[in-house]
Design goal:
two-stranded antiparallel ribbon; 2 strands; mainly alpha; elongated
Length: 142
Amino acid sequence: MSRAADAIGSALYGLATRAVRRLPRDMSLTSAATLATLDKTGPRRITDLAAAEGVTQPAMTVLVRVMEKSGLVERKGDPSDKRVTLVCLTEAGASYVRKRRQAGVDAYARLIDQLTADEVETLAAALPALLRLADLESESDR
């Protein structure tokens, strides 16, 4: 690994961990991540969600029950296989994901507003590389 890759990785990791610590504590990180996964990928089986979030199937079942009671998700039958139940976001769940994402965007925007014009320009120039990193990370989830 090059020194540049190590320094950039360290900076991004530090930024991400501080961002996670600033998130609202109204639900667990696994619950929030599960809602974000459903928002990104659409309805999923509990076993698929458990694998995606790195938890056991029984733990995901409990988590889904809690989110169902909160009105954030619902279970529906899979039209292609009547034996399968899919977990789907409700409108309240989708709204929660949008609000949480926007709160994160707003927090970073406030920080970026404190940078110099040159620093903002440098970040803007790095945007294609940052988006590519996000794509690579998404590909590694598959």
